[in-house]
Amino acid sequence: MTWEVVIGLEVHCQINTKTKAFCGCATTFGSEPNTQTCPVCLGMPGQLPVLNTLAVDKTILTGLAISADINLESKFDRKNYFYPDLPKGYQITQFTVPLVEHGHIDIVTKSSGAKRIGVTRIHMEEDAGKSMHEGLDAVSHIDLNRSGIPLMEIVSEPDMRSSDEAIAYLKNLHQVIRFLGVSNADMDKGQFRCDANISVRRPGEPFGTRTEMKNMNSFRFIKQAIEYEIVRQIEVIEDDGKVIQESRLWDSVKNESRSMRTKEEANDYRYFPEPDLPPLRVSQLEVDTIKASMPELPHQLRARFETAFGLSAYDADVLTQTRELSDWYETLVAGHPADPKQCANWMANELLGRLKEMNKDLAHCPISAQAFALLLDRIADSTISGKIAKDVLDAMMETGVSADDFIEANGLKQVSDSGAIDAMIQTIMDANPKPLETYRGGKEKLFGFFVGQVMKASKGQANPAMVNQRLKEMLKA
Amino acid sequence: MDIDVQKVAMLARIRLTDEEATELSPQLSSILAYVDQLAAVDTEGVTPTAHPHDASMPLRANVVTNGNRRDALQAVAPKLESGLYVVPKVIE
Predict the structure, then answer these.
(1) Is the CB of B60 less than 8 angstroms away from the CB of A51?
(2) Range of the domain at A460
(3) Residues from chain B contacting residue A278 (CB–CB below 8 Å)
(4) Which residues of chain B have pLDDT under 70?
């Protein structure tokens, strides 16, 4: 009998504001510990929170990007629990009425094709501080620089049925968030964190008991953790056991999860309305203004690249992974407008391939899109062949030299002079009487041999199309 | 109304002796029963009150207004190390 997997995801995403959610402290990552705190984010008595207007706008923008409803009146609540990295003893969050509800994200997976995943809500809240335990014996260390940084918690419907769907949803969401510029969403820096609610059931039956998998900070770990948990739950049930509703912590070193249950983990947060904050009211006009500022989203960009530039779905996807990539590509096409498809091929295969080998990202690419466009111009106007262009690109990437300077300095100009090409062909024919005889005897496969010899003799600089054409004629005679 | 006084105390991180719990249990129950009278009021069609003042939330600009005042703010901390707060170990 088969099992059906049910997955819902909660993503905590740091909103990239200059200041914290409720105070004027800086949010700079990696600063000296506890240098970006004040009485408000330290939970000192008598302090009042005042919400950051940009955090509100960015949450609304995110909501609009996933076709959600914006609640013109939303509320804040206190979620109460004790932990040393939560100085107030409660987190300010939106429990009863979130700012954003009822959105969706469309995904495509190999296994189940196109599918719409519901987003239940996006609510605003504040981050906790950071606890450090490593290498410490009886104590923990607390840095409260992160305390009070604004978060969006994006909660999905339990609509995903495989780890592939979960990853597709997360990557899609991550990409949208990066395109919107509402968060840097750097997973290594904890700016995009995921908890997964996982259960299994027989198809058609009600939901099984779920567990919550926490502490997953890369797409790879999330996939591993979900797959591990699915297998674990099925084993428990098939051994006549019962899945216990609990939080589990993913250990990416041991590749296993373990229960986080402690005596004190009675999840009783005693939410109540935040008395220090009246309702958050936004006008329809404000929402419309934010909507008008919406940048082109990844799926729109992909569609435009396919229709306007004739790219394959695959290339369009590769070149729209980040705004940086798509901007670079569009600058490239602006510089070499004659052939957007060639731009895509060269960028996706040659440029990105070399960057990967150099362990660099596009932001640190040694050459500009304009310089790259000039290289493609030289292929188009037959100054160099595609093969030579790859060598030129190597040099450009290494030293930052321009295509023209390198071609000139190394005498790489393609030979398109028919006289010169004929002379080279004649030399090769004279030097290879045997193959010539065999060829003329009907073994036309040898044509490739002659092409190779001529190209070699020209150090790759002969115009390949002309070599082909002239060879055909001269070998016949 | 019966209340698990020890559970409530644990959630609030208040340590109670059994005698205190026994004494507080009926007191808390009677407070709840008193507040429970509100349930008798017919609130059909009444918008819930989110806040006692009919105010909208004022917002702050996204501008850094606080500098580094670590020394002053940490003056009240019982234990510090290299600028970090030191607390009893929180995970096993």
Answers:
(1) yes
(2) 418-476
(3) 50-51, 53, 55-57
(4) 1-2, 50, 92
